[in-house]
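Notes from hallway chat w/ T.B., transcribed later so I don't forget. T.B. wanted the structure written out for a chain they're using in a teaching module, and asked if we could keep both sequence and structure tokens in one place. Agreed to drop them here.
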Amino acid sequence: MELLFEKSHAGRGCDLLPPLDVPPAHLMEGTERRTPLRLPEMSEVDLSRHYSELERRSHGVNNGFYPLGSCTMKYNPRIHEETAALPGFAGVHPSQGADTVQGCLEALYLAEELLCEITGMDGMTFMPAAGAHGEFTALLMVKKYHLDRGDTQRTKIIVPDSAHGTNPASAAMCGFTVVNVPSNPQGGVDLEALKAAVGPDTAGLMLTNPNTLGLFDPNILEITQIVHDAGGLAYYDGANLNAVMGVARPGDMGFDLVHLNLHKTFSTPHGGGGPGSGPVGCKRFLMDFLPNYHVAEGEHGLEFDRPCKSIGSVKAFYGNFAVVVKALTYILTLGAEGITEAAQGAVLNANYMREMLRGTYDIAYGDGPCMHEFVLTLAGLKKEKGVSAMDVAKALLDHGIHPPTMYFPLIVEEALMAEPTETESRETLDRAVEVLKTIRAQADTDPERLHTAPHTTPIGRPDEVNAARHPVLRYLYPEERT
């Protein structure tokens, strides 16, 4: 597919700008470009066709099954977009005075109240722009909490070996030392290893529950108590909250802080349809450390206040407001019963799909029921037939199915992690199971074809190592190429 730059023809365009009716503004001397800006020149119809072609090449939840494990790629109802586009929400400016945006502040205030009820927290900020940004924000609060108490020796964050990769990265960015603890044979946190890891230098624990194996840790109350007894804080990574929302609350599990992924659990657009949002909630004793501009009741209505020991601002203004409006619409549409039913549906779908595949594929840590997702291990298949998790994932593309998450969690060899979500029908799950069984049979009869899959997509199997090491980040005009 040609790029816009390659389709460009000098002199073509689709801009019809009116004459300038205000005094022109000029850049300061010395700040002008030295060379003309080279932008594509195209007609409107060619431009429209280009982006329509790009859309046809993209795969999203609106195109087909998208069981990307731990990413909760659920359907985003159109009512969310309509609500966020209401003039009172879409037409505001972030610098307006609080007295002119009371409706927007009320939306934020209500969203905080409802999300605190769902998570068992007492306060929340909507400033973080995404999940990893929420992790970073929460850990800054953990750090300032300990420093405020004079606990300067608390420099270590404990992270299980099944954690998301962003957990240790966020901890390191905040200046903490990361301590890894292993999983037990059942896929949960090894309690003895945790007890050995905590001490006077423990700042906190980062934990996802259910974890990335799709398992709810039955020892969760003991885990958070061990951390608290050592003087640390317990942080809940909310990436997998979709499995337990309305059923179990992180705050009741003993967690002190939590981040949420509104673009996962609460059905706002994910990825290119974003932006995302990663609110951080906390218990009351940590609310003084929340970022600046927390919505609170004032003398003349709702206003932004600054917590007295705030970590400061982590983003311009107050985060991605429209995303919060979409998440609030989701919560109000479903109500308390609907939120619970959504979680139960996610768990039901995952267990149904996993059991339908049992006997065809090996299931990692598959003795008991799973939660919202499950992990297959293709280590045996690769050893016997030479067919890898990558081969199976690529073959799914030929059937119009987005692959599950590959090679994660790292503690499972040749892993495929699938999360069907609650918005998929039984018919969709049955077809996905049928396709996966067909691919498994093909591993016996024609493994070579799986090695070269996909065969029907616009792009085959790219050289991912070369792409990662030598990325092409901008278009080079012919005269720039060597």
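Follow-up for T.B.: The chain has 15 helices and 13 strands. Might be a good example for the class.
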